[in-house]
Design goal:
This protein is mainly α and 423 residues long. The protein has helices at residues 3-17, 20-33, 37-62, 67-70, 75-91, 93-106, 114-130, 135-161, 174-183, 187-205, 211-242, 253-265, 269-299, 304-321, 326-352, 360-381, 389-392, 405-422. It folds into 2 domains: 3-336, Hydantoin permease, CATH 1.10.4160; 353-423. The protein contains 18 helices and no strands. α1 packs across α8. Pfam families: Branch_AA_trans.
């Protein structure tokens, strides 16, 4: 594979990851993190960069669909998991891209409704989805460079014009707060969803390439995309931290990014921010709906009709949910993320490690432990945490909403030791 193909694929991955949540979350994290911005950035990049890129590496190894991620647990579990993830994807992060676009790029210029923005937005998304064979070229060559240029202008203007003075942090647990905020990017879920889009797109363009060649292409592109994400996230968090005393503490995520853009880009802020939001959000919506349509098409014997119907349903859902404001969609997403995100992280990690340490039995035990120990965090997120405190207070890291981590690690270690001893 040529360097050009690696660059195009890396740009496409970056753009498919970098959507609405990725754009509006880091600045506010930095704004509230104060002098501990680096610790918050570390936590955020762990869940929003490292885990997603490991998901892409897992795709490079499997070179299949999202179904392959969980099939070692059982085919039935994998099918249920896939349907849940795709349902969440087209019902929450995809519509959120339209809502963010409206609040930041449309509403300040035109006094139009969320509904009108969503209709036009998802009509364009549908056009790109049904022309899926051109996704890599269009996204990689034209859209991503525009995103990077505007972001670098904002970050660069801040670094060279603002004094490096930080306030106190507003977080009790900066690291864990960064990790959990990284959930809201949906990037781990995005890795298993849009990774399949990349695989199919590469197969269309390079159908004669060998498994090893395609694996090398995806791995290299994944690491380059990850480096780009890390630099941009860290830069946006750092930028937000430098503006800690410039705006009201209750400012919204979208309002903060708009204000920072105005401060740094001056008269060009509205145009630059509109382009940035439109590109970042649009490419993510295209990737999510394309990945969902690919999956449903595969479940119906590669039926083009199934692909078309899924694309239409995804865009209609986008129009309906896109009418709500960003804050509401983020709040609604929390319970779903508290349950499905730990399972997704564990599946990614198990698919990355060598097969010797990830037998079907290990998949079953570790995923079962993760599901069980994710339930308390899920109950807390829907307001029923007090009723379970007496039974779950002993769980390590529960107060940080990561009570599943140590149990999953312990089960992974024990089952591996038992299996290797028997061998």
């Amino acid at each position: 594979m040529s360097k050009k193909n690696i660059a195009i694929t890396a740009f496409a991955l970056f753009s498919l990851f970098f959507g609405a949540g990725n754009l509006i979350l880091p600045p506010q994290l930095g704004f509230k993190s104060g002098d501990l911005w680096w610790l918050v950035a570390f936590g955020f990049c762990l869940s929003a960069v490292l885990i997603p890129i490991l998901g892409i590496l897992a795709h490079a190894k499997l070179q299949g669909t999202m179904f392959d991620f969980a099939k070692k647990v059982s085919p039935t579990f994998s099918l249920i998991y896939c349907y849940i993830v795709y349902a969440i994807s087209i019902a929450l992060p995809s519509p959120r891209t339209a809502s963010v676009t409206h609040e930041m790029a449309i509403q300040p210029i035109w006094n139009s409704s969320y509904l009108l923005t969503s209709i036009i937005y998802f009509a364009l998304v549908y056009v790109f989805v049904v022309n899926r064979s051109k996704i890599l070229d269009v996204v990689g060559k034209f859209l991503t460079p525009g995103i990077l240029i505007v972001l670098l202008l904002i970050i660069g203007a801040t670094i060279f014009n603002i004094d490096f003075i930080f306030g106190p942090t507003q977080f009790k647990s900066p690291f864990s707060h960064g990790v959990l905020e990284g959930y809201q990017t949906f990037d781990a879920i995005g890795a298993v969803v849009v990774g399949g889009v990349i695989i199919i797109s590469i197969n269309i363009k390079e159908n004669s390439a060998s498994y090893e060649v395609k694996k090398g292409l995806i791995r290299k592109a994944g690491w380059f995309a990850g480096l780009g994400l890390f630099l941009i996230y860290a830069g946006l968090i750092f930028t937000g931290a430098l503006f800690h005393d410039s705006f009201d503490s209750s400012i919204s995520r979208t309002g903060l990014l708009s204000a920072i853009s105005t401060e740094t880009l001056g008269n060009t802020a509205n145009l630059g921010l509109s382009i940035l939001v439109g590109l970042a959000c649009f490419t993510t919506a295209v990737g999510i709906i394309t990945g969902t349509a690919d999956f449903i098409k595969g479940r119906f014997n590669d039926s083009p009709l199934a692909y078309q119907i899924t694309a239409i349903v995804g865009c209609v859902l986008g129009v309906l949910m896109g009418q709500f404001n960003v804050g509401y969609i983020i709040a609604v997403a929390i319970p779903a993320l508290m349950f499905i995100y730990p399972i997704t992280i564990v599946l990614i990690l198990l698919n990355v490690v060598p097969d010797t340490y990830a037998s079907p039995k290990i998949f079953k035990w570790v995923v079962t432990a993760t599901v069980l120990f994710s339930i308390p965090d899920f109950l807390v997120s829907i307001g029923h945490g007090d009723s379970t405190t007496a039974f779950t207070s002993w769980i390590p890291l529960r107060e940080y909403h990561m009570g599943w981590v140590l149990p999953a690690l312990i089960v992974f270690t024990i089952v591996n030791l038992v299996q290797h001893k028997r061998r």
